[in-house]
């Protein structure tokens, strides 16, 4: 599913004009993005939690040359599904 699909669903289900639906979707995603950039978690009840986690440096290996390289510390986005979402997924499988 893409952002455009979400906009189309808002248009079909809620009757919002596509322009308004796009503004709503953009506002939601911008809010989530800016909250994560600020270092805060985003928790959506019944869906899950988004967090930014710091990963330390570690040794890795270049698969082509087999040479050892240091992988620098970085931040990664982590999503943890809520128990409700996990339950729904198990029931639909």
Q: Could you explain the architecture of this structure?
A:
By secondary structure, this protein is an alpha+beta fold. The chain has 2 domains: 1-40; 41-93, Irregular (HU Protein, Chain A). 45% of the residues lie in helices and 29% in strands. It has helices at residues 3-14, 18-37, 83-92; strands at 42-44, 48-55, 58-61, 68-71, 74-81. It has a 3-stranded antiparallel sheet with strand order 1-2-5. A two-stranded antiparallel sheet has the order 3-4. It is elongated and about 55 Å long.
What tags apply to this protein structure?
93 residues, alpha+beta, HU Protein, Chain A, 2 domains, 3-stranded antiparallel sheet, two-stranded antiparallel ribbon, 5 strands, 45% helix
Predict the CATH topology of the largest domain. HU Protein, Chain A
Helix content: 40-55%
Topology as a string of helices (H) and strands (E)? HHEEEEEH
| CATH C-level label of the largest domain | Few Secondary Structures
Query: Going by CATH, what is the homologous superfamily of the largest domain?
Result: IHF-like DNA-binding proteins
Largest sheet: 3 strands, antiparallel
**How many strand segments?**
5
Oligomer: single chain
């Amino acid at each position: 599913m893409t952002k455009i699909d979400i906009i189309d669903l808002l248009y079909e289900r809620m009757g919002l004009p596509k322009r308004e639906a796009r503004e709503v979707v953009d506002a939601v995603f911008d809010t989530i993005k800016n909250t994560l950039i600020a270092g805060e978690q985003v928790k959506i009840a019944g869906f899950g939690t988004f967090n930014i986690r710091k990963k330390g440096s570690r040794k890795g290996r270049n698969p082509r040359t087999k040479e050892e390289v240091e992988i620098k510390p970085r931040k990664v986005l982590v999503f943890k599904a809520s128990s409700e979402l996990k339950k729904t997924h198990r029931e639909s499988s």
